[in-house]
Structures are given as C-alpha cells and as structure tokens.
Amino acid sequence: FQDVFGQSLVELAHRNEKLVGITPAMPTGSSLTYMMDEFPQRTFDVGIAEQHAVTLAAGMATQSLLPVVAIYSTFLQRAYDQLIHDVAIQNLKVIFCIDRAGLVGADGPTHHGAYDIAYSRCIPNLIIAAPRNEHELRNLLYTAQLDEVKLSFLIRYPRGRGSLINWKNNFERVEIGKGEILKDGERVAVLSIGTTSRLVETALTE
Fold first, then answer.
1. d(Cα 166, Cα 133) in Å, to the nearest integer?
2. pLDDT tens for residues 166-198?
3. How far is C-alpha 121 from the geometric centre of its chain's CA atoms?
C-alpha cells in the first residue's frame, strides 16, 4: 500500500502542479521518497514534528497549494489540535494519507493505528475514507485532489501488502458518501470498511 500511495502521488503530481508532499520524518516508511526523487522542490520532510507538519500544510493551503501529508495514524494523534484548529475549522483543503491504520505487526504496539476513525469522525469539514484495495487507494487520491472537492480528505490504509498484482488502474472519481455492494443476499447484511472487506468476501464465499 505504501508504494501504491507513493507512485500514485507522483503520477498525480505530474498532472497537478499544486500538489506538494509533507511528512514528519516518515519518507521511507510512507514511500514519499518517490515524490522526493521526482519533485524535490515540492516535497518536505520536517523531521519528528507532527504538529509543524500539519500547520505547514495549513499555511500552504492558504496559498492555493494542495498539501498531501503522509503520516502514520498513531503519530497524527500528536497533531490533533492542529488538525482541528489549523485545518478543519478554517475549512482548508489538505489531503491526509494515514499510513499504518490498524494493527501493524512487526512495527510494534506503539505504531498500532487504532484510534484515527474514532478521533476524526467528530471533526468538521473532513472526509474520511478507507480503500478496500489498491485500486480504491489510487481512486481516492485522485478524487481528493480534484478541484470540485473542497473539503480536506483523510485516507487511511494499512501497513504491508495488498491483494492486487496489476494495481495501476486508470484513475476514476469516487462518489463520496456512497458504499458499494460486493455481493447480493437476502438473509444477512455485512458492512465493512477498508481492507477488512477481503475477509468478509472470503467468509461469505465459504
């Protein structure tokens, strides 16, 4: 998922000159290094300073740039005040790419992204999304950067491998606020979000 994010962002940056990348000391883990290599003047690593990363993004947004903040879920907690007061309340458009959402395995318990859905749902002017696969991650990034989308976007995705081999699909706009029916049925309704859908699909098949 990290490489899908990093490579897709570079594709979009070629199309959209307003896109800039920001990370608080997570360029390699988040794969923002692809953007750093391709657009070094449009990519910023601010060091271990999550609050500064979000406030920097807010400032850039006031100047008609479109910041993409690549940050681990557990570390966005440190910038919660800035997320609310510097971005959301001012209704600025920033794309937050929330890496390590959910359990993270070898990264350890300090990196589990267990709280971002709960703490972000109460924030105004913020769209929260979780792709179920690599195609949806690409499409959510594409949708978030479109001019007609005026709100900030929070896209959360897990650490590690996805499920698709050929994941470089053509970008398509995602309809915001609408789910997708993966399988029709009559007796049971199962709702899922993000990559959990793979487990749900497997369970319903078996």
1. 11
2. 888 899 999 998 888 888 888 888 888 888 777
3. 15
